[in-house]
TrEMBL record:
Organism taxonomic ancestry: Bacteria, Pseudomonadati, Pseudomonadota, Gammaproteobacteria, Alteromonadales
Alphabetically ordered keywords of this record: Hydrolase, Magnesium, Metal-binding
Protein name as it appears in the record: ADP-ribose pyrophosphatase
TM spans (from-to): none
Catalytic reaction equation(s): ADP-D-ribose + H2O = D-ribose 5-phosphate + AMP + 2 H(+)
Gene Ontology MF: a single term: ADP-sugar diphosphatase activity
UniProt function note: Acts on ADP-mannose and ADP-glucose as well as ADP-ribose. Prevents glycogen biosynthesis. The reaction catalyzed by this enzyme is a limiting step of the gluconeogenic process.
Length: 204
C-alpha cells in the first residue's frame, strides 16, 4: 500500500473553540493544509461534531446459525426512513481509559442480556470524517442465542431495546432488501459472510 503523501504535520490548526457542549460537543476550528499542487490552502473554517469513539459487536451462535440484532428508536432516521426503529448491532461509546473488550461485554449484557466469548476484532473506520472525529470499531463474538430475548436497556439512559434472534438466511435477505439500514450493521454482516469459514476456524 502506498504511504500517505501527507500527515497531521501538514495541517496548521490556527484556532479552536467549543461552540456547543451538551450531551455531545461541537467545535469550530480554523485550519490550513498543504495542497497537492504545492503551497497551502486558504484558511478554512470547519465545525466538528465531537462524540468520542464507539465499538459495535455482532454476536453469532455457530450452533443455531443465528445472529443477535437489536431494534431501537433512532430520531435521526425520521428524515429519510418510513420507520425510525432500526435493526442494529450492539454498540456503545468508549469511555476514557476503558478497554474496547470491556465495552463489548458491558453493552452486550445491557442491551441484549447476553454473554460473549471469542471476541475478535474485524476492523475500524471513520464514521463521517467530514463532520465528526468519531472512529467506530467493529467486533465479532460468539454467544448463546437461546438466551437472547425480551426488551432491554438502561432506564437511566431511556433505552428501549428489543432483542432479535436472526437466522443467517434472513440476515442476508435483510441486507439485500435494505431492511438493514445503518453502516455498522451492514459492514459487520458483510464481513461475516465474506469471512465466515475463517472466523469459525478461529473459534475452534
Amino acid at each position: 500500500m502506498k504511504q500517505a503523501q501527507y500527515t497531521n504535520d501538514d495541517v496548521k490548526i490556527l484556532t479552536e473553540e467549543t461552540v456547543f457542549k451538551g450531551f455531545f460537543e461541537m467545535k469550530r476550528v480554523q485550519v490550513r493544509h498543504k495542497l497537492f499542487n504545492g503551497g497551502w490552502s486558504r484558511v478554512l473554517s470547519r465545525e466538528m461534531f465531537e462524540r468520542g469513539h464507539a465499538v459495535a459487536v455482532l454476536p453469532y451462535d455457530p450452533n443455531t446459525q443465528e445472529f443477535v440484532l437489536i431494534e431501537q428508536f433512532r430520531f435521526g432516521a425520521m428524515a429519510t426512513c418510513d420507520s425510525p426503529w432500526l435493526y442494529e448491532v450492539i454498540a456503545g461509546m468508549i469511555e476514557p481509559n476503558e478497554e474496547i473488550a470491556d465495552v463489548c461485554h458491558r453493552e452486550s449484557f445491557e442491551e441484549a442480556g447476553i454473554l460473549l466469548t471469542g471476541l475478535q476484532k474485524v476492523l475500524s473506520y471513520l464514521s463521517s470524517p467530514g463532520g465528526t472525529t468519531e472512529r467506530l470499531h467493529i467486533y465479532m463474538a460468539k454467544t448463546d442465542t437461546t438466551l437472547a430475548k425480551g426488551v432491554h436497556g438502561l432506564e437511566s439512559e431511556s433505552e428501549d431495546i428489543m432483542v432479535h434472534r436472526v437466522k443467517e438466511s434472513d440476515a442476508r435477505e435483510w441486507l439485500d432488501n435494505g431492511k438493514i439500514d445503518n453502516a455498522a450493521a451492514i459492514i459487520a454482516l458483510q464481513w461475516f459472510f465474506l469471512n465466515k469459514q475463517k472466523l469459525l476456524k478461529s473459534w475452534q
